[in-house]
């Protein structure tokens, strides 16, 4: 999980830095991607606001045959927002191996992104917890403003109907289910390590069952709500151009930095809407980046655990931020978008499915579902509902496994627009995906070699048992099967000190000061 979070943390801040760049570029009277009269535009550029272009999809009634080819070439328009993105912001090279120059404006915005992230995490969860109140709630205000503006535009209903109408022919495509799984993994943070990190700051008896229900419903509802915001604007743009919504809809970077910005140019006071949109993207990205960086820092501090690193956590945060900035510099080059998409498709997509599947199987069938359900009952005061027990034991592993199998069967090499990635680049992508997954069998073999036992079967049996000190960190929470059989003494090792100073300083409600949040790591 740490390896995955490292990959995501590197390239995710590059996406935030591009949003920063567009945010700063929106501070003007006319958006720079509104017209085709800029030095970087090509003769193929055809802006929806240019008075010389054909509007509303109108075509000449009759044309001589010798003009049909030039017209067909002209109608294959290249939008000014696409040329701004490809020829000015990225100065895109022709190959993933051709790095070209580092785009200094993007490099500066990347530095701003990492400085913001570091300052918000300088005091750990104490500072980031306060910032998240803003970064998690204000995007809803922006979404609502854009939603109200979008649904009042002509053609918005067409875009919304396109959004709500299922395409049943896609239901058997593995890529659709893979994308759906990736969306859930990204939005909920499954298999990233962030959930474990943040949960370690909770009170031992925190009602995580209630929290998980609220978060899951709110997350999916927000995604649906954001879809209305996006497709209402895209429907308006399609109506303006006289084309189908599918012609203007896009995915990935093309939606955030090409299609939607172009649609915003059609609105009155377009710089204002552009500022709001990219400010929302920045806040959403920072909220994710806070969790990623905190995951890495907490893992490092807790794993080392000595007094020096506990007191110098700020320097650890600074070191991780500087390393992330340096590793992100190649992604600001002219070939950076190729590498960003390569990391996104391999390092942080395929491996998440594998990690989560192994995690379900390991907890349910190696640690044991009965032990796990008893642990949850000890913390919550009641066992998990039968629905969740069935899902954890059978449904979730099966669904994840079949998604993994279908993804492998229907695998297609990555492409970007019309660019086909070379074989060596795809091999690097698989190596990045493998680098996180390989940690699981390697550590299993390491643990198997250092476990006592006369035979391999005995070693395997002993290696799959919890260690002697497994259980709640605080003695007062060691009840039931975790209760000590003899009177505790300092040598018993039961009085585990909190590894993280922030966790040790957050008071709990209704208990004495010795009940710390660290004991949720059972």
UniProtKB/TrEMBL annotation:
Keyword Cell membrane: yes
Record-linked InterPro entries: Na/ntran_symport, Na/ntran_symport_glycine_GLY1, SNS_sf
Disulphides: 36-45
Main location: membrane
Catalytic activity annotation: glycine(out) + chloride(out) + 2 Na(+)(out) = glycine(in) + chloride(in) + 2 Na(+)(in)
Polar residues bias: start-end ranges: 508-522
Residues engaged in binding Na(+): 187, 219, 284
Single GO MF annotation: metal ion binding
An individual GO BP term: amino acid import across plasma membrane
Annotated compartments: Cell membrane
Residue segments, region Disordered: 501-522
GO cellular component: plasma membrane
Transmembrane segments: 7-24, 104-125, 137-164, 184-201, 213-238, 272-293, 314-340, 346-366, 386-409, 421-446
Keyword vocabulary terms for this entry: Amino-acid transport, Cell membrane, Disulfide bond, Membrane, Metal-binding, Neurotransmitter transport, Sodium, Symport, Transmembrane, Transmembrane helix, Transport
Keyword NAD: no
A Pfam family of this chain: SNF
Family (UniProt): Belongs to the sodium:neurotransmitter symporter (SNF) (TC 2.A.22) family. SLC6A9 subfamily.
Protein name in UniProt: Sodium- and chloride-dependent glycine transporter 1
């Amino acid at each position: 999980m740490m390896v995955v979070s490292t990959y995501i943390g590197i390239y995710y801040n590059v996406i935030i830095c591009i949003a920063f760049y567009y945010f700063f570029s929106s501070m003007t009277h006319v958006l720079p991607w509104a017209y085709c009269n800029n030095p970087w535009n090509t003769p193929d550029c055809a802006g929806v606001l240019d008075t010389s272009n054909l509007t509303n999809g109108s075509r000449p009634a009759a044309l001589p045959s010798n003009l049909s080819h030039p017209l067909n070439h002209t109608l294959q328009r290249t939008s000014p927002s696409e040329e701004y993105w490809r020829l000015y912001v990225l100065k895109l090279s022709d190959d993933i191996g051709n790095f070209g120059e580092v785009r200094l404006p993007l490099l500066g915005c990347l530095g701003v992104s990492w400085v913001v992230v570091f300052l918000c995490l300088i005091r750990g969860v104490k500072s980031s917890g306060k910032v998240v109140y803003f970064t998690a709630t204000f995007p809803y205000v922006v979404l609502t403003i854009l939603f109200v503006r979008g649904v009042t535009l002509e053609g918005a209903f067409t875009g919304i109907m396109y959004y709500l109408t299922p395409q049943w022919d896609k239901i058997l495509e593995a890529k659709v289910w893979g994308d759906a799984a990736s969306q859930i993994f990204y939005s909920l943070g499954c298999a990233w390590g962030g959930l474990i990190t943040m949960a370690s700051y909770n009170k031992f008896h925190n009602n995580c069952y209630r929290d998980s229900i609220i978060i899951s419903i709110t997350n999916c509802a927000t995604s649906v709500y954001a879809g209305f915001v996006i497709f209402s604007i895209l429907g308006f743009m399609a109506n303006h151009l006289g084309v189908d919504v599918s012609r203007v809809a896009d995915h990935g970077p093309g939606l955030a930095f090409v299609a939607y910005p172009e649609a915003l140019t059609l609105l009155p006071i377009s710089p204002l809407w552009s500022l709001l949109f990219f400010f929302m993207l920045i806040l959403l990205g920072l909220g994710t980046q806070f969790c990623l960086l905190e995951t890495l820092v907490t893992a490092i501090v807790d794993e080392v655990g000595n007094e020096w690193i506990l007191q110098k956590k700020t320097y650890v945060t600074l070191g991780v931020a500087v390393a992330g900035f340096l590793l992100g510099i190649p992604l600001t080059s002219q070939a950076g978008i190729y590498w960003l998409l390569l990391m996104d498709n391999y390092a942080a997509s395929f491996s998440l499915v594998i990690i989560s599947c192994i995690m379900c199987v390991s907890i349910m069938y190696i640690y044991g579902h009965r032990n796990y359900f008893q642990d949850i009952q000890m913390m919550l005061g009641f066992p998990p509902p039968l629905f969740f027990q069935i899902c954890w034991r059978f449904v979730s592993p099966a669904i994840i496994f079949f998604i993994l199998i279908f993804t492998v069967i229907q695998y297609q090499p990555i492409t970007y627009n019309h660019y086909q990635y070379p074989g060596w680049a795809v091999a690097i992508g698989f190596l990045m995906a493998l680098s996180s997954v390989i940690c699981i069998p390697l550590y299993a073999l390491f643990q198997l070699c250092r476990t006592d036992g006369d035979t391999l079967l005995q070693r395997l049996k002993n290696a799959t048992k919890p260690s002697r000190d497994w259980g709640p960190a605080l003695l007062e929470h060691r009840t039931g099967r975790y209760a000590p059989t003899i009177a505790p003494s300092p040598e018993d090792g039961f009085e585990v000190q909190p590894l993280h100073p922030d966790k040790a300083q957050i008071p709990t409600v209704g208990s004495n000061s010795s009940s710390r949040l660290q004991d949720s790591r059972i």
